[in-house]
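Fig. S4 source data, part A: sequence.
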Amino acid sequence: MKQVTRRSFLAVLLGLFGSGKTKAETPKSSFPPVPRWHPSFSQPLDRVTDRISYYANRRKDFVVFRDGTCVLLADGLTEKQAAEFALKVLSDILNFHPDMNPTPMDDGNLLVQYNHPAVNVVLHDVAQAHWSEIESRYMDGLTPSEVLVTPLGPNKFDALGKQALLGRAYMFIDAQKPEISKIIRHNQ
C-alpha cells in the first residue's frame, strides 16, 4: 500500500443532498470524527524513540507523546517552543484530515506518516504479539463514515494496512488527550 487517501465524494454528496433522514433521525456527530479503537496494548516508548532516532539518522529533535506519536522538530527550539509546536501539530492533524502514508522500514517495522511532521512507528514484534486484536479491531480504526482507498479497494486492508490503522489509532489517542512523555534531542 503506497498511499492511503481519504475518499470523501460520497460524504460530500450526502452532505449536500442529505441522506434521506429527517433532522430528528440524523445522529448527532462529533467533530472531529475519531475511531472507536483504543488498542488494549501499548508499545515500549524507549524502543519507539530508538527507532525514530534511527529513521532520522539521529539528526532530528522530536517530541514523544504518551502513546508513541512523535512530532519532528526544527533545530534550536526551546522546551516550551517544542511542546507548543508538537501540540499544535497534533491538533492540526486531528482537526484536518488524518491521512496517512505507511512505509515499511528496513528493520521490519512500519512508519506511519501524516500530512504534518508527525509519525508513529508500529513495532513488528509488538504487532505480531497482538495480532488477534489487530485482526479483530482494525476496522474500528476508521472514523465514522470514513473510506480509505487502498490497492485492494475501498476499506480493504492487507496486513500492512491493518498495522497502519493501529499506528494511526495511537495518534488519535495522543491527539485527543495529548500528554508529552519526553523531548528527544539529537545532540545529547
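Fig. S4 source data, part B ends here. The chain has six helices and nine strands.
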